[in-house]
């Protein structure tokens, strides 16, 4: 990390004595100024609320702000200090132990909503039968974390779709707890429709674990006190309402319209060699960043030869996406190289899909955003930064 | 306690046999001097609607590259650019807090950037309204919304200043009663005030097209 020049520190100090403290983490005056502004707004607001409730802590906002700045200089993410992060029009609560939603994720959630709408228009054109509108739009969000993707998708799609079913799956109970709180919080803020309470469900599940035969009866019996697999969750929670469509499909799993995921994708070496920034490494949960390959016995069964250990989730999710016949699959990847690896992985799998599945169209996989303009327009870095892989029927 | 000058009004309101209104409503209508709504003399023109096709919206991450994975330093970036096919640059998983929005208006070439809030969608809304105001100011000049608002504010301030001066002048006059002739002082002061108003006017009119 390059040293901050003394001249910059002095300049910052002259402006505000708290700015040099923030510079330690922010590294640039511009972002330090912004963060100081946001922290001050929050400190003042908190103190006002405290004084209104007449609670015992009667410290002034200045003291509070100073404490916040020192916390920030130690590398604690701003979102953990403030306790929330805007995500689209939503306000997502954040706490230690759950990954903070990134703006890249926000971008591709918008893109996902756009593609779903486009898809719905196309299917309406193809078959204007009322059966399409009767079935709810089904979305599966794996590794949901704060639940940000699930909640934003509901907020974006609720005006167009009468019925939506969103299932968020995560391994961490802390994350699930927070996701549920986020659901209530955003309904309270009136940015999320009231019906989201019934339409969004968060369940604890292990994405990597799989049961050999995707059969609900054996799945539940084998489950015991183990964390259920995604297949088990799907068959448990959709059978009651959607048995009719399930039987017509003939497959044991319900059909999913959109499978979206932001799985852990940082490699073990990238986590430790300084590539991952200190703040992320020290304060955000490792579970959400690095796929746990060492402890998991199943991982050997999932990954194939030549797979990198950090790509293990993609292999498993691509497999799942075939099983649930997802019309649209969107996966966030760490960088362009990883995204291309995932596309390759999909192409390796796809012949099997063409033979086995009764899908009429051909699936195509693409990296998004592909062009420089797309990157700039959506806030992605041109050369680096995350990308996502979009797999859909037909393609463009 | 009611002030004496209110008495005749209220009395009339209650006693008049010709009014068909209930006494309370007539009272309210007569008391309009206390709750007259503050109306602008002329309503402002509607805010300009920009065509979405003309706008180029881009999301910036404040300074430098952003996202979860970013290039670590300028030196690495240059190195990486020089050796693009061979070398993979050192990248960084980060948590950028900034979400600035920049909008370019194609036809006029005006660029607006906003990083007021942490929310990207909120920043976009703010940037849009700022841009609409700027484009309108460029198109209509003095007749634009911003210019009219500035004009109204200027007038208000000028009259406030004038009133304050009058007040202190009257106080002064009260202190040394009889020394100053009424007409003389008045004329003198008004001339002063006018000069003042004119200077402020030129000041704002110089400023308003640039903002």
Description:
Chain B: Its main location: mitochondrion. Chain B: Residues 177-189 have a biased composition (Acidic residues). Chain B: It is found in: Mitochondrion. Chain B: Residues 200-211 have a biased composition (Polar residues). Chain B: One of its GO terms (molecular function) is translation release factor activity. The complex is a heterodimer of chains A (396) and B (211). By secondary structure, chain A is α/β, with parallel strands linked by helices. Chain A folds into 2 domains: 6-74, no CATH class; 103-393, Vaccinia Virus protein VP39 (Rossmann fold, 3-Layer(aba) Sandwich). Chain A contains 18 helices and 9 strands. In chain A, the strands form 2 sheets. Chain A has a 7-stranded mixed sheet with strand order 5-4-3-6-7-9-8, with helices on both faces. In chain A, strands 1-2 form a two-stranded antiparallel sheet. In chain A, a hairpin with a 2-residue loop joins β1 (84-87) and β2. In chain A, α2 (19-26) crosses α3, α2 (19-26) runs parallel beside α4 (61-73) and α16 (312-323) runs parallel beside α17 (336-356). The longest helix of chain A has 25 residues, at 29-53. The two termini of chain A are 43 Å apart. Mean pLDDT of chain A is 84; it is low at 213-223, 243-249 and 352-359. With 211 residues, chain B is mainly alpha-helical. Chain B folds into 2 domains: 55-140, Double Stranded RNA Binding Domain (2-Layer Sandwich), CATH 3.30.160; 145-210. Helix content of chain B is 51%, strand content 11%. Chain B contains 6 helices and 5 strands; from the N terminus they run ααββαβββααα. In chain B, a hairpin with a 4-residue loop joins β4 and β5 (110-114). The longest helix of chain B has 31 residues, at 145-175. Residues 8-29, 62-91 and 183-211 of chain B have low confidence and may be disordered. Classes of the chains: A alpha/beta (396), B mainly alpha (211). The interface between A and B is large, with 43 and 40 residues.
């Amino acid at each position: 990390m390059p040293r901050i020049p003394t001249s910059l520190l002095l300049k910052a100090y002259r402006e505000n004595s708290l700015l040099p403290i923030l510079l330690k983490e922010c590294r640039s005056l511009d972002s330090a100024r912004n963060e100081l502004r946001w922290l001050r707004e929050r400190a003042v607001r908190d103190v006002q609320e405290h004084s209104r409730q007449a609670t015992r802590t009667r410290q002034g906002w200045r003291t509070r702000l100073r404490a916040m700045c020192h916390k920030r200089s130690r590398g604690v993410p701003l979102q953990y200090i403030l306790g929330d992060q805007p995500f689209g029009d939503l306000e997502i609560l954040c706490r230690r132990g759950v990954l903070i939603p990134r703006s890249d994720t926000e971008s591709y959630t918008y893109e996902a909503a756009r593609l779903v709408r486009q898809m719905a228009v196309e299917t309406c054109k193809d078959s204007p039968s009322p059966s399409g509108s009767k079935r709810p739009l089904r979305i599966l969000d794996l590794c949901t974390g704060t639940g940000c993707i699930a909640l934003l998708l509901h907020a974006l799609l609720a005006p167009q779709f009468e019925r939506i079913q969103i299932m968020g799956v995560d391994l961490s109970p802390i994350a699930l707890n927070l996701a549920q709180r986020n659901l209530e919080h955003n309904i309270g803020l009136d940015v999320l429709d009231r019906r989201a309470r019934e339409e969004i469900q968060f369940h604890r599940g292990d994405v990597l674990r799989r049961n050999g035969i995707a059969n609900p009866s054996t799945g539940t019996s084998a489950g015991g006190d183990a964390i259920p697999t995604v297949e088990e969750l799907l068959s448990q929670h959709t059978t009651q309402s959607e048995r009719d469509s399930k039987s017509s499909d003939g497959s044991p799993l319900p059909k999913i319209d959109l499978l979206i995921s932001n799985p852990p994708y940082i490699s073990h070496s990238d986590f430790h060699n300084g590539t991952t920034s200190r703040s992320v490494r020290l304060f955000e949960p490792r579970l959400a960043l690095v796929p746990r390959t060492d402890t998991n016995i199943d991982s050997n069964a999932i990954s194939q030869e030549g797979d990198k250990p950090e790509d293990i989730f993609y292999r498993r999710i691509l497999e799942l996406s075939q099983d649930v016949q997802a019309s649209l699959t969107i996966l966030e990847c760490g960088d362009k190289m990883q995204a291309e690896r995932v596309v390759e992985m999909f192409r390796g799998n796809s012949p099997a899909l063409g033979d086995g599945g009764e899908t009429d169209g051909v699936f195509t996989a693409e990296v998004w955003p592909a062009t420089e303009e797309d990157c700039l327009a959506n806030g992605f870095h041109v050369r680096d930064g995350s990308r996502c892989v979009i797999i859909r029927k037909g393609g463009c | 306690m009611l002030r004496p000058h209110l008495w005749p009004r209220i009395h009339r309101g209650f006693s008049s046999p010709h009014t068909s209104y209930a006494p309370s409503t007539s009272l309210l209508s007569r008391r309009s001097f206390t709750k007259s709504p503050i109306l602008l003399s002329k309503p402002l023109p509607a805010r300009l609607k920009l065509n979405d096709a003309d706008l180029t919206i881009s999301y910036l991450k404040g300074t430098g590259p952003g996202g979860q994975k970013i290039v670590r330093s300028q030196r690495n970036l240059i190195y990486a650019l020089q050796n693009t096919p061979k070398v993979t640059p050192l990248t960084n998983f980060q948590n950028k807090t900034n979400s600035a929005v920049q909008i370019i208006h194609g036809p006029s070439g005006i660029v607006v950037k906003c990083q007021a809030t942490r929310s990207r969608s909120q920043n976009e809304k703010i940037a849009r309204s700022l841009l609409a105001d700027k484009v309108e100011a460029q198109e209509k000049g003095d007749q634009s919304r911003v210019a009219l608002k500035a004009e109204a504010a200027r007038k208000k301030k000028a009259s406030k200043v004038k009133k304050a001066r009058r007040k202190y002048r009257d106080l002064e006059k009260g202190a040394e009663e009889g020394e100053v002739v009424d007409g003389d002082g008045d004329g003198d002061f008004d001339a002063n005030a006018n000069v003042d108003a004119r200077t402020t006017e030129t000041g704002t009119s110089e400023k308003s097209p640039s903002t």
